[in-house]
Amino acid sequence: MAPKFDVYAHVTDTIIAEIEAGTPPWRKPWTGSASGVALPTRHNGDEYRGINVLMLWVMAAKHGYVSSRWMTYKQAQELGGQVRKGETSSTVVKYGTFTRENELGIEEELPYARAYRVFNADQIEGLPEDYYIRPEAPRDLGTAEDPELEAFFSRTGAEILTSDDPRAYYSPAKDHIHMPPIATFHDAAGYYGTLAHEVIHNAEVRIMPRRSS
């Protein structure tokens, strides 16, 4: 028999994994986004609250979803849409209470958490156009380079590429780091802190083969 799905463990593990992976999507220190940055909303426009906001931001950032709208498979069908074949759902949690009589015969309210599955509008074909919400455009904030830090990162030997693509990442396959323009960051500390994190990933990949030899 398959193990019971633990809602609390799933939420905790997802958030911890994003924090350990680097800058989580709700703390992104630059402007512009490859995914939706508005508060996640249900099919009817109601905003998600609490932990579901973080959970859906994580999934949007991870998969590059643009729209802020999320819905169940059935809700998509009711709107005339169809989830594309092969798309994977994301987990959200509904919190509530239920009444139960305890051993003393006294009714008490107990909390519960129930998981259910939703899809982003970008995973669905045939929805009304206003469900496909566009991402935030990068903004030039005038943040300038620090010559000493530029020289330091140059000495690491890492290949650092910059483009208007609003994502910061290290590509193991191509062995390069991609950074958005420093001018789109709120401050230089955010830029170099993000770059340092990606340089560490680069260094880990370079060191690992030596450890295995």
UniProtKB/TrEMBL annotation:
GO molecular function, one term: nucleotidyltransferase activity
Domain Polyvalent protein metallopeptidase per the UniProt entry, residue ranges: 148-204
Keyword Iron: no
EC number: 2.7.7.-
InterPro entries per the UniProt record, alphabetical: ArdC_N (IPR013610), MPTase-PolyVal (IPR041459)
Keywords in alphabetical order: Nucleotidyltransferase, Transferase
Span of domain N-terminal: 6-119
Name of protein: DNA primase TraC
Organism, as annotated: Thalassovita autumnalis
Gene: traC_1
